[in-house]
Amino acid sequence: MSPKKVAILISGGGSNMVSLAKSMTGDHPGRPCLVLSNVPGAGGLQKAEDMGIATEVVDHRDFKGDREAFETKLISVIDAYEPDAIAMAGFMRILTPTFIGHYAGKMLNIHPSLLPKYKGLHTHQHAIDAGDAEAGCSVHEVTAELDGGPILGQARVPILPEDTADDLAARVLVKEHLLYPAVLVRFLRGETEMLSL
């Protein structure tokens, strides 16, 4: 059976994209077919090109706040590559139910908290401010509820007494690079039990 095609969406440097793409070799059930960014010149685009992966840019600023028009273009560009799955890897746009519905059951996201805690931004600072003993990251299926879809995997790190948000973010990122590829394999194989690292 030929590998499933995975489109990866980014807005920045693409470190999670790189870990996903590097994992998709050998007997992995997926292969990267596209790296798309909403930011021209995003660092991850060059990394993808260097890895031989097709890249596309759909700049949200070209649509002057018309989210529907932006997403219509996004869908047309992505669908040309016929992906079996979409991996959001630091794609910093909130998507409408129309976009999410178009890829229902096919879309994953990684979020830097132990969901359902701390949806949205500034997750590491929230965890420190709350006095939590641990933090981490979650891979979840994307649904219309922000950071609210079924959780497919989590990885945990301790919060140390002297941690800043940046310290914590750096330790969590190491786990993100392990967790996301592991969950993607299971997702492409149709396995839905939650993975804990």
UniProtKB/TrEMBL annotation:
Ranges that cross the membrane: none
Positions annotated to bind N(1)-(5-phospho-beta-D-ribosyl)glycinamide: G14, S15, N16
Entries under InterPro entries matching the protein: Formyl_transf_N, Formyl_transf_N_sf, GART, GART_AS
Active site: H111 (proton donor)
Residues annotated as binding (6R)-10-formyltetrahydrofolate: R67, M92, R93, I94, L95, N109
Pathway assigned in UniProt: Purine metabolism; IMP biosynthesis via de novo pathway; N(2)-formyl-N(1)-(5-phospho-D-ribosyl)glycinamide from N(1)-(5-phospho-D-ribosyl)glycinamide (10-formyl THF route): step 1/1
Pfam families, per the entry: Formyl_trans_N
Domain Formyl transferase N-terminal stretches: 4-184
A GO MF label: phosphoribosylglycinamide formyltransferase activity
Positions marked as site (Raises pKa of active site His): D147
EC code(s) of this entry: 2.1.2.2
GO biological processes: 'de novo' IMP biosynthetic process
Coiled-coil intervals, chain numbering: none
Taxonomy, superkingdom: Bacteria
CC annotations in GO: cytosol
Catalytic activity entry: N(1)-(5-phospho-beta-D-ribosyl)glycinamide + (6R)-10-formyltetrahydrofolate = N(2)-formyl-N(1)-(5-phospho-beta-D-ribosyl)glycinamide + (6S)-5,6,7,8-tetrahydrofolate + H(+)
EC supergroup of this enzyme: transferase
Keywords, ordered alphabetically: Purine biosynthesis, Transferase
NCBIfam families associated with the record: PurN
Family: Belongs to the GART family.
Role, per record: Catalyzes the transfer of a formyl group from 10-formyltetrahydrofolate to 5-phospho-ribosyl-glycinamide (GAR), producing 5-phospho-ribosyl-N-formylglycinamide (FGAR) and tetrahydrofolate.
Cited PANTHER family: PHOSPHORIBOSYLGLYCINAMIDE FORMYLTRANSFERASE
Protein name according to UniProt: Phosphoribosylglycinamide formyltransferase
Gene: purN
